[in-house]
Design goal:
The protein is α/β, with parallel strands linked by helices. Helix content is about 30%, strand content about 25%. It has a six-stranded mixed beta sheet. Strand 6 (about 95-100), helix 2 and strand 7 form a beta-alpha-beta unit.
């Protein structure tokens, strides 16, 4: 059953996603795509102690009205998205609030691209990084023969409670530097920073706001 469980995870990860451009006719106002074109790019935060693979989504320029189409790939996981790969940021209409997104345990930075793209279309800059030591790819690589064991032991759970908030701080520092010089100079409102996350990433967001664990 362990191998079957792993096969199911792989199958779900590799399965094609629903058409991201599809839109319900009765969707509420803010379920509609926002007014900004969306750009995306992959980056590496070159921290000497803990480098991070990360991605950005942001309001972008699209003077040629190109279709917003891209693919996201993390190892064996491939999914389609609605963004312009490596497009120039729309600095003129900024600055934009910054959202730092934290994925769940055994997740990866592309797990919520639909949400990141949607927020960027409404005038936010979004950054998400793989929390090294707590990603799906590392879990699979550790033990494809023992799915349950890999799921339970692949990550240093206690260590990640401390490291995840540090990853968020690294991303904020990176974006602060980008806001000072380069293509994103002046595009980010570093006085408006939003923490967001899914599951363990939700804890990470709360921890960034000062929440503490109650183990009693």
């Amino acid at each position: 059953w362990m191998l079957c469980g792993l096969a199911l995870v792989l199958a779900l990860s590799l399965a094609p996603l629903p058409n991201a451009a599809a839109q319900r006719l009765d969707a509420p106002e803010f379920a509609q795509r926002g007014p900004f074109a969306v750009g995306t790019q992959d980056i590496v935060i070159d921290d000497p102690d803990r480098p991070l693979d990360a991605s950005l989504w942001y309001p972008a320029l699209n003077p040629d009205e190109l279709p917003e189409e891209t693919s996201y790939r993390a190892g064996f996981i491939i999914s389609d998205g609605r963004a312009l790969r490596d497009a120039a940021p729309d600095v003129e209409n900024g600055p934009y609030p910054l959202i730092v997104f934290s994925h769940g345990a055994s997740g990866y930075r592309f797990q919520s691209t639909f949400w990141a793209e949607h927020m960027a279309s409404y005038g936010f800059v979004v950054i998400a990084a793989d929390h090294t030591g707590d990603t799906l790819l590392e879990m699979v690589a550790q033990s494809s023969a023992d799915f349950h064991g890999a799921l339970v032991t692949h990550s240093d759970l206690v260590g990640n409670y401390g490291r995840r908030p540090l990853d968020m701080l690294s991303q904020i520092a990176y974006m602060d530097a980008q806001n000072a010089a380069g293509p994103f100079a002046g595009a980010i409102d570093m006085d408006q920073i939003i923490m967001a996350g899914h599951s363990f990433g939700g804890y990470t967001a709360f921890a960034m706001g000062g929440a503490q664990m109650d183990i009693t």
